[in-house]
Amino acid sequence: METEQRSPRTAPAADRAARRAVTLFPVLVLTAGALGLAVPDAFTGHGEQVPYLLGVVMFLMGLTMTGKDFQGVVRRPWAVGLGLVAHYVIMPGLGWLVAHALGLSPQLAAGVILVGCAPSGTASNVVTYLARGDVALSVSVATVSTVVAPLVTPPLTLLLAGEYLPVDTGSMMTDILKTVLLPVCAGLLVRLFAGRWVDRVLGALPWLSALTVALIVAIVVAGSAEALKSAAALVLLAVVLHNGLGLALGYGAGKLARLGAPASRAMAFEVGMQNSGLAASLASAHFSPLAALPAAVFSVWHNISGALVAAWMAHRGRAAPAGD
Question: Which Pfam families has this protein been placed in (predicted)?
């Protein structure tokens, strides 16, 4: 879903394409999760492929990026810095609070917290666009949160989830570098030196990413199919609370800092939407398939909630263009 995210346009055709992607992506992921639950034997032997599949997603993300995606950081360092701090304070803290409030098992608690410690989600930019938010700010915060993830996600996970399960920060940092930062950089380089050819296939990249993320979800769900059947309601409640509070507090942080309505909408999605594919990959590798379930459910839910909130914000924005 990165093509529209990185280069949102105001033309009606682009708007329809973005809406179609946001609508169909959660349906695709939900279908994949249902398949993983219904026929787990078809996916259970592929758990070791999850990091490589995530690397494919991040490489495709890199292909859609250009130097313009980094210019906003220089132009508006205060707003980008605020978004970065809000993201890595609010969501990890909420993950810890939700895990404690619901009395989650150590595996599920660690999984929820790890989701909170992940960088911004790959759909946040296009949802910001649909909400008539500040897309430039959204892109800048998402980009920086991804770049700093190797340095921030492991220690935060140790701090908040260490009471539940052992956390090897060094190994986790290496995994994030290999599965996130290096593929993104590789994609950037390919775009830089072969941009003419990449431009020809940009329209297909969002769907390749969506299919890959869906496959990750199917594998993760299949790995703990029996556990999910007994804990589905609890995991869904944890995810809905985590995501919903993140969206609300992210928006509130923007309003409190007087960034304006469009920037506050961007803050809502940059805080509340997570890179759940990364969280699922790390949970599977460092904890267990059960710990990856919150990330799999989050992958479905935050796209549904994001699309709904974006539609509501866009409606409010049209009714009151001067502010929310």
Answer: SBF
Alpha carbon distance 192, 289 (integer Å): 37
**Cβ neighbours of 148 (radius 10 Å):** 14
Q: Which two tokens stand for residue 298?
A: 């989050």
In this structure, which topology does domain 12-319 adopt according to CATH?
A: Na+/H+ antiporter like fold (1.20.1530)
pLDDT tens by residue, 121-160: 877 887 888 788 888 898 889 989 998 999 999 999 999 9
Q: How far is CA 58 from CA 177, 182, 295, in A?
A: 11, 9, 17
Contacts of 200 (CB under 8 A, 6+ apart): none
User: pLDDT per residue over 155-193, tens digit each?
Assistant: 999 999 999 999 999 999 999 999 888 988 898 898 888
Instruction: Give the model confidence (pLDDT) of 190-233 as tens digits.
Output: 888 887 888 887 777 777 877 888 888 888 888 777 777 777 88
- Cα separation, 268 vs 224, in Å, equals 31
Write down the residue that tokens 């299919």 correspond to. 211
